[in-house]
Amino acid sequence: MYPRMPAEWAEHDACLMAWPTRPALWGPAFEAAKQEYAAVARAIAAFEPVLMIAAPGLAEEARAACGTGTGTGVIEVIEVIELPIDDSWLRDSGPLFAHDEHGARVGIDFRFNAWGEKHHPWTADDKLASLLLDRLGTPRVHSSMILEGGAVTVDGEGTLITTEQCLLHPNRNPRMSRAEIEDELGRRLGIEKVIWLPYGGLEDTETDGHVDGVAAYVGPAKVVVSLPEDPAHPDHARMRANLAVLEASTDARGRALEVVPVPQTTYAEVEGTRVEVGYLNFYLANGGCVVPVGGTPQDDAALAVLAAALPGRTVVGVPTPVLAYGGGGIHCITQQLPKEARA
Fold first, then answer.
1. What global pTM score does this model have?
2. CATH of domain 12-338
């Protein structure tokens, strides 16, 4: 079934990001948010090129903040272009990428409504996918369904995992049934089977429970899942309900899933607000995994769990408490540009 979205661990040509541009979201933490975006870009640039989208007039600011990379001499390519944007969560406002039956790359342009009309305006972000695909010279496939990239994780072989909390929320596609949503995911992303987790994060009111806060595909039939060990954590029981679904599920190829629990959680304080820094909101780069950390004792253990689940990849932690304050993490601000798979 084509087009088909490849798994995030497939090889990339680049990572796409967008420079912070909504001061009202960040308040006094706006400048700190820019520094965290730049730090993430530099960390990813050690593994693959980064293309940063800045609002008109902000390219020089982004270039100055990002510099040329990490200084390791590995890749160090960060390019900045200007396009109209409202916000800077490119996983959700940008296109999703897939391969057609010949292995050529196509961009899937789903509608975007700022996570259920939570932030105004969002008109430029809704148009961003089309403009970016034109800039990249990538054919565009339109969908009238509202979908954010953080709401799904795929194995590249026909299986998609999402949450009922988000994808069935009435502020996204109230006129579409579960079956109609599955059908559209099949037509646009090559999905043959959807695994519906009941819950995203209870405190994830910004995205209404995106899956990239609670579970992620890291290999064929292999999923990492948040499983807070603290019984007082608000998602302690909810994530165990998700675990039960995953353990009882098979993928589109009929395989049982290997489920790797991540028991560690961590919190930070930003501008007087306590925020959870989500370890599962990571980005799989070429040969690497860039993970949000909070600068707490729990970080090392969580990174070790992810490193064991991702053999052959270099796992790097980047402190991102301000991203959490803004409502997301590293996965939320990135989008992989997969290599074309032509023979």
1. 0.96
2. 3.75.10.10
